[in-house]
Amino acid sequence: GFDIGIISMLGITVQKQLVHKKVKQEEVTKKIYRLARTSDLEKWITTVNQENVTMLSSRYMAWDCELKMKINDVEYQGDGSKAVFYYSAEERVDFRELIKILAEQFKIRIEMKQIGVRQEAGRLGGLGSCGRELCCSSWLSNFQSVSTSAARTQQLSLNPQKLAGQCGKLKCCLNFEQSTYLEELKDFPQPNIHLKTKKGKGFYNKIDIFKKIVWYSYANDNSTIFAIPLDKVNEIIEMNKKGKFPETLEEFAIVNQKKMDEGVSYSLDELKQIEDR
Question: Is the pTM of this model over 0.90?
Fold first, then answer.
């Protein structure tokens, strides 16, 4: 049979897209037969309108067969002779009997294609917590594994409700800035390096890689933390290596802040307002 396609790009952008999709030009075997006629388009629109009804009906059939699977989407071929049923399942499913029922019911050739939860979210679509359309349904074409180490590197609270996307897995966007964080962190001191002053030893709390700020608190008084610019931190470390100790951390800090509840963060401007009060 044949399918109907819509031209979405031309020229050099096609070559770039093939490279992005890791597809060699000689591997493209599908050919264009002809321009779609009005009758082809009318038949195609009719079959597309049937997809949602077919999906809902097939779900009931799968339930009747007591199969532990979820049919997420149905995609008809342009000539209406074949349909691809996308499903997700936690275990291997024997759907041979279901295929017979679907073929008899809809009088078409059936193809079952299993997809993961990320692909399911991409096909269903929706809005992310950022307010934009899901990356997986708008532009993301390949899925890379996401680990909690990315959240730790970016100093995010390990809260599953905030880190998980609509698919239930860790958000793909955690990987987007990971390389930037890893590169910037090379300039920051290790957390186990303490700042020694005459008033006491300063312990590492957190960092802000974009504003180049490191937060420290005294070992004998951790109720107050001090925001110290990165260059000043490195200056103190060099002084300590030479056996010199500054008077206090306060003389280098741009903001002194009482420790807030864990999980609550404030901008630098907000911290200054708090300090002024």
Answer: no
